[in-house]
Design a protein that fits this description.
227 residues; alpha+beta; Aminopeptidase; eight-stranded mixed beta sheet; 39% helix; 25% strand; globular; Acyl_CoA_acyltransferase; GNAT family N-acetyltransferase
């Protein structure tokens, strides 16, 4: 499924937003590692990131979108879920062991990342893998038991920015989230100039919370109500 939206009213050129495929995953994984290096997953390498991203293609509530120009030039991607709690539950039920062994293999050859993981994340990850918690940290800020739709990652190539690709990716995600009856959409971005807060505020997202990530980075959480 794809959507086409006018990008430049003067030239009549079009931007195409389509569902990502497995053939897109290598490029998406590379771009995430390069442009969104914060957090644990980018430090586990391209092979792990690709396998993790694939869950957004295979699981029912996952969303993976790619933006391309009318000439077929890749511009960026978005991954997220229309129901974060159910998506995480599905991933744990169907992909837990594949991701676990892939993650352990990545950590085994990255001793500094392994030490950082043991210090910052080992206990909550172990609880989740053992099924002792089903709550996703980002969804806890919504103030209700209803799971939000969550934008996990959004990347637009630097050479393609200010062309409207980011807005189109977000709009398509919100359409899918609304169709899935999500009450609101949620995301987290790094605070300050390194984050994308101004971009989301221009799209009428509302900042509702700030917190420090497990790595000590100040992040802002944003909401966009859908119904």
């Amino acid at each position: 499924m794809s959507s086409m939206t006018p990008r430049d009213s003067d030239t009549g050129s079009l931007s195409v937003i389509r569902g990502a495929t497995e053939q897109d995953l290598n490029r998406m994984a590379s771009d995430m590692i390069q442009y969104l290096p914060d957090g644990l997953f980018p430090h586990l390498g391209k092979r792990f990131v690709r396998r993790w991203m694939k869950t957004f293609l295979t699981e029912q509530h996952g969303v993976a979108l790619v933006a391309v120009t009318n000439e077929g030039q890749y511009a960026g991607f978005l991954i997220g879920s229309t129901n974060q709690i159910r998506h995480v539950s599905d991933v744990l039920a169907n992909q837990k062991w594949v991701l676990l062994f892939s993650g352990l293999a990545a950590l085994a050859i990255r001793p500094r990342v392994l030490l950082h993981f043991l210090y910052t994340r080992a206990r909550p990850y172990a609880r989740r893998l053992l099924g002792r918690t089903t709550t996703n940290p980002i969804s806890s800020s919504s103030g209700s038991d209803v799971s939000p739709a969550v934008i996990t990652s959004l990347v637009v190539l630097p050479t393609m920015r200010r062309e409207g690709f980011g807005r189109l990716l977000v709009d398509e995600f919100l359409k899918r989230a609304a169709a899935a009856q999500a009450p609101l959409a949620e995301l987290a971005t790094t605070a300050g100039e390194d984050g994308a807060g101004k971009f989301y505020e221009q799209l009428r997202w509302r900042r509702v919370k700030q917190r420090f990530s497990k790595d000590g980075t100040l992040t802002h959480t944003y909401h966009r109500y859908l119904h």
